[in-house]
Design brief:
10 helices; about 0% strand
């Protein structure tokens, strides 16, 4: 997919976030735009090419949008499992390769239900989307990641001081960004699991 198409999809998805959050996310992208146009996503299985970080971000945001269009995160993962079970069966019948692991999706679902039992209110969509943008930009280099975390800390503190964001949500954004790449075994909160699932699906099929 071309860079222009990526931009045309990413910008509207971020514009749908609450205004101050959308502004922070878009400002992060703009400040690192030239680097992102050529940035190679070495952490991804499918986006190891110039502009791959933007392509991967588009795929992650698409998964997150779908997840929040469902009645609940656990239902969204069940829907993913149903969809890709049918795809897996079809691919097996036609001797094609399906990159999705049904067992892995089941493990994510089980851990998500456990996390939601501990926090029935569940995570906020905008918290995870903002973290996803910051995590993808941070892939450019450790120097860029440090800049992103510093800038985010400042911007989020302003929102907290203005009562536009809770301290808990601000801390969760920074936690997701600083945790970076995580394994399913290390993911504990529903926020971490939602971001992990979005990255997993973007890596395998996005």
């Amino acid at each position: 997919m071309g860079t222009i198409n990526n931009v045309m999809q990413i910008a509207p998805m971020l514009d749908r976030l609450p205004k101050p959050i959308a502004s922070i996310a878009l400002e992060l992208l703009e400040s690192h735009w030239q680097e992102l146009l050529n940035g190679i996503d070495y952490e991804s299985l499918r986006h190891r090419y110039h502009g791959g970080i933007l392509d991967h971000l588009r795929a992650v945001l698409k998964v997150l949008e779908y997840m929040w269009s469902r009645p609940g995160l656990d239902i969204a993962i069940s829907d993913f499992a149903t969809t890709y079970r049918a795809k897996l069966d079809s691919d097996v019948a036609s001797n094609s390769y399906c990159p999705i692991s049904m067992d892995h999706l089941h493990q994510v679902l089980v851990q998500m239900i456990r996390a939601l039992d501990l926090n029935p209110d569940g995570p906020w969509f905008y918290v995870i989307c903002l973290a996803a943008v910051a995590v993808e930009i941070g892939k450019l280099s450790s120097r860029v990641l440090a800049q992103v975390v510093e800038g985010l800390s400042h911007n989020l503190k302003q929102l907290v001081d203005e009562y536009a964001l809770s301290r808990e949500d601000a801390d969760q954004v920074l936690n997701l960004v600083t945790r970076g790449s995580m394994s399913l075994e290390k993911a504990r909160s529903a926020e971490e699991l939602a971001l992990y699932l979005a990255v997993y699906l973007a890596d395998t099929i996005g």
